Amino acid sequence: MKPVSVVEGVMAPLDRANVDTDQIMPKQFLKRIERSGFGPFTFYEWRQEPDFVLNRPEYQGARVLVTGPNFGCGSSREHAPWGLQDAGFEAIIAPSFADIFHNNCTKIGLLCVELAGPKVRALIELAESEPGVECRVDLGTQTVRAGKIVESFEIDPFVKHRLLNGLDDIGLTMQHTADIDAYEASREEQMPTTTPGDAEPSLRLTPVR
Questions:
Q1: Does the pLDDT at position 207 exceed 80?
Q2: What is the model's pTM?
Q3: Helix/strand/coil percent split, the chain, to 5
């Protein structure tokens, strides 16, 4: 996955609590087998409302979403973070996230930043009062900057390492390629063998070196 270091761009406010994954990515769009192309369906039901905040032109192309507590609750569908990322969001700021949703985000390079409720409230009010205001999220220094607001955030060191280095689960595994190759070269393979006259392969297994 793409390494995450600094996310900078327009900050869009979604002043709602307990936004669940069915609201982020409705179930009728889960039939797709590709991981891409979910962006247009993100918040699909809400986007049918003309006054929905993310329909406003000032927030088009936003890269940072600031929202309420317990974001991403509900079912464990991976399509929700896929859709948010495909819609252009690279960082989400909230007081809290559902555990499975948060974990799914770390696997695709979507940065989740937890700040205390009053701090998030200040960011939401800033984004609402100054549409188009930009936000800078620096993972290296663990800081959020928007307007005159400067806040620090905590993040699990291992998650930070993964994001900074662009390591998804496959990337983590590939760091051990030499050890895997050495193991595969040394282990005994168990293969079925046949003997003359056998109609079916014998169930006897012999090591093949």
A1: no
A2: 0.83
A3: 35, 20, 45
